[in-house]
Amino acid sequence: MGNTTSVQAEASDSAQKPATTAPAPGSKPKKICCACPDTKKLRDDCIVQNGEDACGKLIEAHLKCLRAEGFSV
């Protein structure tokens, strides 16, 4: 029963705070290469097909995702 209160408090805290790369006790920190796989794939595919100059929006979307994950890029 005591766990219910702490779980609710944690859920509300995570909804208000942005994600960070600080690892939870006993877990490994997320690596930048593994963060945001969806935006990374779209960005990489665009760069290969069209060149970096044509993919500014996808590059920026990936950087925004990485920042949301707590990376300083």
Explain briefly what this protein structure is:
This protein is mainly alpha-helical. Helix content is 58%, strand content 0%.
3D structure, described in words:
Helix 2 runs antiparallel to helix 3. The chain is mainly alpha-helical.
Descriptors:
73 residues; mainly alpha; Helix Hairpins; 58% helix
**Tally of distinct domains:** 1
Could you estimate the helical fraction of the residues in percent?
Answer: 55-70%
CATH fold node name? Helix Hairpins
CATH architecture: Orthogonal Bundle
Supply the helix-strand structural class.
mainly alpha
Rg, please? 17 Å
| Mean pLDDT value | 77
Q: How many DSSP E strands?
A: 0
Parts with pLDDT < 50 across at least 5 consecutive residues = 6-20
Strand content: under 5%
Q: Strand count, sense and closure of the main sheet?
A: none
N-to-C SSE string, H for helix and E for strand: HHH
- Report the end-to-end length measured between terminal Cα atoms: 42 Å
Q: What best-fitting shape do the alpha-carbon axes yield? A: elongated
With helices defined by DSSP (H or I, 4 residues minimum), what is the helix count?
3
CATH class: Mainly Alpha
Keywords: Chaperone, Copper, Disulfide bond, Metal-binding, Mitochondrion
GO molecular function, one term: copper chaperone activity
Protein name: Cytochrome c oxidase copper chaperone
Organism: Zea mays
